[in-house]
Amino acid sequence: MSQVEIEELEAWIRHVLASRINQAEKERDKLLADITKAVNALPEYCNQLSKKAEQDMESKHDNRAQFKAAKTLSRVTTLIAGRSVTLPNERDTTSLRTLQRELSKTASEEARTRAEHLNQIRPFYIIDTMTLGGNIDKQRRLSDELHNFLMGRGGILKSLEDLDEKLNSLDKLRSTRDSISAQRKSLEEKLAEATKTDETLRQQVDRVRQNQKMKEYMQIDRELRGLRVELLRTGFSRLGRPLRKLASLSERGSYPLPIEVRESINEYLRRPFVTFISDEEEYPKLKNVMSALSHAVSSGKLALKQREAKKVTDRTEEVVSRNSLLAIQTKAKALKDRYDQFMIDPETASLVEETKTLRQKGRENLKLKNGLDDELRRASEIESKANDQIAGLTEEIEHFSSKLAGVEVKIKPPQTR
Fold first, then answer.
1. How many CB atoms lie within 10 A of CB 66?
2. Over the stretch 183-199, which tens digit does the pLDDT of each residue have?
3. CA dihedral (309, 315, 319, 322) positive or negative
4. Domain parsing of the chain, residue ranges
5. pTM (2 decimals)?
6. Coil/strand/helix, residue 4
């Protein structure tokens, strides 16, 4: 078994197969030289015959048969000379196969043109047509030789081309993998930085919360949030949709309401807790809203199902007649007064603003972290797939090289080629 660096593999293969490669290259070069000579020689000979035919047409004008033969020969040589074979600049197998097919096709067309007019040219130009046929046959023979070479001894050159193509593909894969690896490392660094920032922001928020005034402020804020939830649960549960329908009917003029009641409905729909706290004691605005809702339900204007209508009526009755929300309002107003006092204090206001800023930065940083996590996951998946492709192609190159060299080849871990 031979272990070879990937960078040295092609040179190593050429060294092992030097004799066969040199022989194949010499045979290829000789064939190309012969083909080039034959392809260039045919038009030159056709031009010579064409001039000869033109001279005979002038000198043998009285000999109708020979004049006709000369005229036909001129036309035939012009047709054959007009067909060209493109000689490739490259000597790779693909270019040679294209040349072989073109040469074979052109030779067949030239032979057919000659055969179609041969009887008209004889017997005046027997030697000339035989020479012309020999030139055409030479092209066909060289086409066959090139075909046999490509299918036989020239296969070693095709194998080298295939190996080079595989190595180039490996280069591209590794380049892509390296680019993705660099991207992954950059994302890991950014994610580490974002995680560090997150921890710093948490520490700063914790520091602010340790302030005694902030502790009292946050306690009041939590209680107010709890009262808001309780208000929505006990006072407005199942009333949202009916209130919106009532507001819509009133705005369209389908169910007239006093302006102040309609405005109160809209305020309670937009900001129920703030409006509730700012309402006067025993919440007269809310009671007017609930009374209007109860009347609309009773009149059937809201077109509610019987079960839903009963629940709405019961809830409005609790709010209007039993003052079921009075305790919540009393406690909420007291807490709101204390809240406002805290916000008047410059130190507390500054700490609250700082906390809001830190929380906003925390939300933005969290969004950044989540985005980086997603990008890092995708980059890692692409990198893993690229590594799998590299491993698969490396194994394929090992098998291919082993078969080509006739000895087991093991490629060392790939480095930058």
1. 17
2. 999 999 999 999 999 99
3. positive
4. 22-153, 208-366
5. 0.65
6. strand
